[in-house]
Amino acid sequence: MITGDFKDHFSGIADAYAAARPEYPDALFDAIALHVPATARVWEPGCGSGQATRGLVARFAHVHATDPSARQLAQHWACADDGGLGAATSPGHDVSTHPGPLRSSDPRVSLAVEPGERTDLAEASVQLIAVAQALHWFDRPKFFAECQRVLAPGGVLAAWGYPDFVAPEGMLDAVAAFRARIEPYWPPERAQIDARYAGYEWPFPALPTPTLWLESEWSLRHFLRYLSSMSASARCLAATGIDPVAHHAPALAESWGDTADLRTISWPLFLHLRQKP
Asked: Of 101, 97, 122, which Cα lies nearest the Cα of 113?
Protein backbone atom coordinates (compact mmCIF):
# COMPACT_ATOMS: atom_id res chain seq x y z
CA MET A 1 0.00 0.00 0.00
CA ILE A 2 1.08 3.59 -0.57
CA THR A 3 1.89 5.30 2.70
CA GLY A 4 -0.09 8.18 4.10
CA ASP A 5 3.08 10.29 3.96
CA PHE A 6 2.63 10.83 0.21
CA LYS A 7 2.35 14.58 -0.43
CA ASP A 8 0.26 14.88 -3.60
CA HIS A 9 0.76 18.38 -5.03
CA PHE A 10 0.20 17.48 -8.69
CA SER A 11 -2.75 15.09 -9.17
CA GLY A 12 -5.16 18.02 -9.33
CA ILE A 13 -3.15 19.60 -12.16
CA ALA A 14 -1.99 16.38 -13.84
CA ASP A 15 -3.32 17.33 -17.28
CA ALA A 16 -1.69 20.78 -17.16
CA TYR A 17 1.56 19.26 -15.92
CA ALA A 18 1.67 16.75 -18.77
CA ALA A 19 0.96 19.39 -21.42
CA ALA A 20 3.11 22.25 -20.15
CA ARG A 21 6.35 20.91 -18.70
CA PRO A 22 9.59 21.21 -20.69
CA GLU A 23 11.38 18.25 -22.29
CA TYR A 24 14.79 17.32 -20.94
CA PRO A 25 17.81 17.83 -23.26
CA ASP A 26 19.69 15.00 -24.95
CA ALA A 27 22.85 16.14 -23.15
CA LEU A 28 21.34 15.06 -19.82
CA PHE A 29 20.70 11.48 -20.94
CA ASP A 30 24.02 11.35 -22.78
CA ALA A 31 25.79 12.23 -19.51
CA ILE A 32 24.01 9.36 -17.76
CA ALA A 33 24.70 6.94 -20.62
CA LEU A 34 28.45 7.49 -20.22
CA HIS A 35 28.20 5.41 -17.03
CA VAL A 36 25.31 3.03 -17.79
CA PRO A 37 25.17 0.39 -20.57
CA ALA A 38 22.45 0.45 -23.22
CA THR A 39 21.28 -2.96 -21.98
CA ALA A 40 20.34 -1.49 -18.61
CA ARG A 41 17.00 -1.92 -16.93
CA VAL A 42 15.86 1.32 -15.29
CA TRP A 43 13.63 2.17 -12.36
CA GLU A 44 12.15 5.67 -12.65
CA PRO A 45 10.29 6.49 -9.40
CA GLY A 46 8.22 9.66 -9.31
CA CYS A 47 7.91 9.56 -13.10
CA GLY A 48 4.82 11.78 -13.26
CA SER A 49 3.49 12.05 -16.79
CA GLY A 50 6.70 10.77 -18.37
CA GLN A 51 8.80 13.79 -19.36
CA ALA A 52 12.00 11.86 -18.55
CA THR A 53 10.80 8.42 -19.62
CA ARG A 54 11.19 9.29 -23.31
CA GLY A 55 14.87 10.10 -23.00
CA LEU A 56 15.52 7.07 -20.81
CA VAL A 57 13.79 4.53 -23.05
CA ALA A 58 15.61 5.94 -26.10
CA ARG A 59 18.93 4.93 -24.53
CA PHE A 60 18.24 1.93 -22.28
CA ALA A 61 16.56 -1.44 -22.70
CA HIS A 62 13.59 -1.08 -20.35
CA VAL A 63 12.12 1.53 -17.99
CA HIS A 64 9.90 0.66 -15.02
CA ALA A 65 8.18 4.02 -14.46
CA THR A 66 6.32 4.45 -11.19
CA ASP A 67 4.44 7.20 -9.41
CA PRO A 68 2.26 7.31 -6.28
CA SER A 69 -0.34 9.36 -8.18
CA ALA A 70 -2.72 7.33 -10.35
CA ARG A 71 -3.90 10.52 -12.03
CA GLN A 72 -0.35 11.47 -13.00
CA LEU A 73 0.29 8.00 -14.46
CA ALA A 74 -2.98 8.18 -16.40
CA GLN A 75 -1.40 11.18 -18.22
CA HIS A 76 1.81 9.26 -18.99
CA TRP A 77 2.45 9.05 -22.74
CA ALA A 78 2.97 5.26 -22.49
CA CYS A 79 -0.28 4.63 -20.61
CA ALA A 80 -2.59 2.69 -22.94
CA ASP A 81 -5.69 4.21 -21.33
CA ASP A 82 -6.62 4.90 -17.70
CA GLY A 83 -5.30 1.43 -16.88
CA GLY A 84 -8.75 0.40 -15.71
CA LEU A 85 -8.46 2.83 -12.82
CA GLY A 86 -11.80 4.49 -13.45
CA ALA A 87 -12.66 6.34 -10.26
CA ALA A 88 -9.06 6.10 -9.10
CA THR A 89 -8.20 8.95 -11.45
CA SER A 90 -10.99 11.22 -10.26
CA PRO A 91 -10.19 14.24 -8.08
CA GLY A 92 -10.12 13.51 -4.39
CA HIS A 93 -9.59 9.75 -4.77
CA ASP A 94 -7.12 8.21 -2.34
CA VAL A 95 -4.54 6.58 -4.62
CA SER A 96 -3.40 4.40 -1.73
CA THR A 97 -6.42 2.20 -2.43
CA HIS A 98 -5.25 1.38 -5.96
CA PRO A 99 -1.56 0.49 -6.09
CA GLY A 100 -0.26 -1.77 -8.81
CA PRO A 101 0.52 -1.99 -12.53
CA LEU A 102 -1.11 -0.10 -15.39
CA ARG A 103 -1.29 -1.18 -19.01
CA SER A 104 1.50 0.26 -21.20
CA SER A 105 1.36 0.94 -24.92
CA ASP A 106 5.15 0.52 -25.23
CA PRO A 107 6.74 -2.88 -24.47
CA ARG A 108 9.92 -1.11 -23.35
CA VAL A 109 8.02 0.69 -20.57
CA SER A 110 6.15 -0.77 -17.59
CA LEU A 111 3.97 1.45 -15.41
CA ALA A 112 2.88 1.01 -11.80
CA VAL A 113 1.27 3.04 -9.03
CA GLU A 114 3.96 2.75 -6.38
CA PRO A 115 5.52 5.09 -3.82
CA GLY A 116 9.00 6.39 -4.41
CA GLU A 117 10.22 4.62 -1.29
CA ARG A 118 9.18 1.12 -2.30
CA THR A 119 8.85 -0.95 -5.47
CA ASP A 120 7.98 -4.54 -6.34
CA LEU A 121 11.22 -4.87 -8.31
CA ALA A 122 13.54 -7.70 -7.29
CA GLU A 123 16.85 -7.24 -5.50
CA ALA A 124 19.76 -6.09 -7.70
CA SER A 125 17.43 -6.06 -10.72
CA VAL A 126 18.21 -2.63 -12.24
CA GLN A 127 21.38 -0.93 -13.44
CA LEU A 128 20.00 2.62 -13.25
CA ILE A 129 17.62 4.46 -10.92
CA ALA A 130 16.60 7.78 -12.46
CA VAL A 131 14.70 10.44 -10.51
CA ALA A 132 13.61 13.54 -12.41
CA GLN A 133 12.53 16.61 -10.40
CA ALA A 134 11.10 14.37 -7.66
CA LEU A 135 13.69 13.33 -5.06
CA HIS A 136 12.79 16.23 -2.75
CA TRP A 137 9.32 14.70 -2.30
CA PHE A 138 10.65 11.32 -1.12
CA ASP A 139 11.40 10.04 2.36
CA ARG A 140 15.09 9.90 1.51
CA PRO A 141 16.34 7.40 4.12
CA LYS A 142 13.67 4.93 3.01
CA PHE A 143 14.30 5.65 -0.66
CA PHE A 144 18.07 5.29 -0.36
CA ALA A 145 17.55 1.97 1.44
CA GLU A 146 15.40 0.81 -1.48
CA CYS A 147 18.14 1.93 -3.88
CA GLN A 148 20.57 -0.29 -1.98
CA ARG A 149 18.17 -3.20 -2.42
CA VAL A 150 17.19 -2.96 -6.11
CA LEU A 151 20.34 -1.45 -7.67
CA ALA A 152 22.88 -3.98 -8.95
CA PRO A 153 26.56 -3.57 -7.99
CA GLY A 154 28.12 -0.96 -10.28
CA GLY A 155 24.68 0.51 -10.96
CA VAL A 156 24.01 4.25 -10.96
CA LEU A 157 21.58 6.48 -9.10
CA ALA A 158 20.85 9.59 -11.19
CA ALA A 159 18.83 12.44 -9.69
CA TRP A 160 18.26 15.79 -11.32
CA GLY A 161 16.09 18.87 -11.21
CA TYR A 162 15.74 22.46 -12.30
CA PRO A 163 15.16 25.57 -10.15
CA ASP A 164 13.05 28.45 -11.41
CA PHE A 165 13.49 29.67 -14.98
CA VAL A 166 15.57 32.67 -16.00
CA ALA A 167 13.24 35.55 -16.85
CA PRO A 168 13.53 36.36 -20.59
CA GLU A 169 14.89 39.74 -21.61
CA GLY A 170 12.39 42.53 -21.00
CA MET A 171 10.21 40.40 -18.68
CA LEU A 172 12.09 40.78 -15.40
CA ASP A 173 9.56 43.05 -13.67
CA ALA A 174 6.47 41.17 -14.82
CA VAL A 175 7.95 37.81 -13.84
CA ALA A 176 9.13 39.18 -10.47
CA ALA A 177 5.59 40.39 -9.67
CA PHE A 178 4.14 36.98 -10.51
CA ARG A 179 6.78 35.20 -8.43
CA ALA A 180 6.09 37.48 -5.46
CA ARG A 181 2.41 36.55 -5.56
CA ILE A 182 2.96 32.77 -5.52
CA GLU A 183 6.07 32.68 -3.31
CA PRO A 184 4.18 32.07 -0.01
CA TYR A 185 2.45 29.06 -1.53
CA TRP A 186 5.46 26.93 -2.46
CA PRO A 187 5.64 23.68 -0.48
CA PRO A 188 8.69 23.74 1.83
CA GLU A 189 10.37 20.95 -0.18
CA ARG A 190 10.80 23.39 -3.05
CA ALA A 191 13.78 24.94 -1.20
CA GLN A 192 15.68 21.71 -1.78
CA ILE A 193 15.40 22.21 -5.54
CA ASP A 194 16.64 25.79 -5.21
CA ALA A 195 19.61 24.41 -3.22
CA ARG A 196 20.23 21.78 -5.93
CA TYR A 197 19.98 18.99 -3.33
CA ALA A 198 22.97 20.33 -1.41
CA GLY A 199 23.58 18.62 1.91
CA TYR A 200 21.94 15.31 1.02
CA GLU A 201 23.50 12.22 2.61
CA TRP A 202 23.91 10.16 -0.55
CA PRO A 203 24.29 6.38 -0.25
CA PHE A 204 26.99 5.98 -2.93
CA PRO A 205 30.14 7.76 -4.15
CA ALA A 206 29.80 10.58 -6.68
CA LEU A 207 30.54 10.45 -10.41
CA PRO A 208 31.50 13.57 -12.40
CA THR A 209 28.65 15.57 -13.97
CA PRO A 210 28.62 18.32 -16.61
CA THR A 211 27.08 21.79 -16.49
CA LEU A 212 23.65 21.55 -18.08
CA TRP A 213 20.83 23.84 -19.19
CA LEU A 214 17.22 23.13 -20.04
CA GLU A 215 15.78 25.29 -22.84
CA SER A 216 12.41 25.44 -24.59
CA GLU A 217 11.07 27.59 -27.44
CA TRP A 218 7.56 28.49 -26.32
CA SER A 219 4.62 30.61 -27.32
CA LEU A 220 3.07 32.93 -24.76
CA ARG A 221 0.15 30.51 -24.40
CA HIS A 222 2.50 27.64 -23.56
CA PHE A 223 4.44 29.80 -21.12
CA LEU A 224 1.24 30.70 -19.26
CA ARG A 225 0.25 27.02 -19.16
CA TYR A 226 3.61 26.25 -17.61
CA LEU A 227 3.06 28.87 -14.90
CA SER A 228 -0.34 27.29 -14.22
CA SER A 229 1.31 23.87 -13.81
CA MET A 230 3.35 25.09 -10.84
CA SER A 231 2.15 23.66 -7.53
CA ALA A 232 2.42 27.13 -5.96
CA SER A 233 0.02 28.54 -8.56
CA ALA A 234 -2.56 25.85 -7.77
CA ARG A 235 -2.13 26.35 -4.01
CA CYS A 236 -2.45 30.13 -4.39
CA LEU A 237 -5.70 29.72 -6.34
CA ALA A 238 -7.07 27.30 -3.75
CA ALA A 239 -6.17 29.58 -0.84
CA THR A 240 -7.24 32.94 -2.28
CA GLY A 241 -9.79 32.15 -4.98
CA ILE A 242 -7.72 34.26 -7.38
CA ASP A 243 -5.89 32.62 -10.28
CA PRO A 244 -2.39 34.15 -10.11
CA VAL A 245 -1.65 33.38 -13.76
CA ALA A 246 -4.85 35.03 -15.00
CA HIS A 247 -4.22 37.98 -12.70
CA HIS A 248 -0.70 38.56 -14.05
CA ALA A 249 -1.33 37.47 -17.66
CA PRO A 250 -1.88 41.02 -19.04
CA ALA A 251 1.46 42.27 -17.67
CA LEU A 252 3.25 39.11 -18.77
CA ALA A 253 1.74 39.40 -22.26
CA GLU A 254 2.73 43.05 -22.55
CA SER A 255 6.33 42.29 -21.60
CA TRP A 256 6.43 39.27 -23.94
CA GLY A 257 6.15 41.46 -27.04
CA ASP A 258 4.33 40.15 -30.09
CA THR A 259 2.11 37.39 -28.71
CA ALA A 260 2.72 35.39 -31.90
CA ASP A 261 6.46 35.25 -31.21
CA LEU A 262 8.26 32.28 -29.70
CA ARG A 263 10.67 33.03 -26.88
CA THR A 264 13.44 30.96 -25.32
CA ILE A 265 12.80 29.93 -21.73
CA SER A 266 15.88 28.64 -19.86
CA TRP A 267 16.41 26.79 -16.60
CA PRO A 268 19.70 25.78 -14.92
CA LEU A 269 19.66 21.97 -14.77
CA PHE A 270 21.56 20.11 -12.05
CA LEU A 271 22.48 16.42 -12.08
CA HIS A 272 23.76 14.11 -9.35
CA LEU A 273 25.27 10.76 -10.34
CA ARG A 274 26.11 8.19 -7.65
CA GLN A 275 27.52 4.71 -8.34
CA LYS A 276 26.94 1.72 -6.11
CA PRO A 277 30.24 -0.08 -5.40
From this structure: 101
Backbone angles phi, psi at 41, to 5 degrees: -95, 140
Measured between alpha carbons, how far is 253 from 193 in angstroms, rounded to an integer? 28
User: Are 106 and 57 within 8 A, CB to CB?
Assistant: yes
Q: Are 32 and 156 in contact (CB under 8 A)?
A: yes
pLDDT at 248 over 50: yes
pTM of the model: 0.86
Task: For the beta carbon of residue 261, count every other beta carbon within 10 angstroms.
Answer: 9
Kindly give, in sequence order, each residue whose CB lies less than 8 Å from that of residue 70, ignoring residues fewer than 6 positions away.
11, 83, 85, 88, 89, 93, 95, 98, 113
DSSP characters over 198-254: TT---SS-B-----EEEEEEE-HHHHHHHHHTSHHHHHHHHHHS--HHHHHHHHHHH
E strand or H helix that includes residue 126: strand 126-132
Rounded to 5 degrees, φ, ψ at 91 are: -60, 140
Q: How far is residue 143's CA from residue 117's CA, in Å, rounded to a whole number?
A: 4
Average pLDDT score over the chain: 89
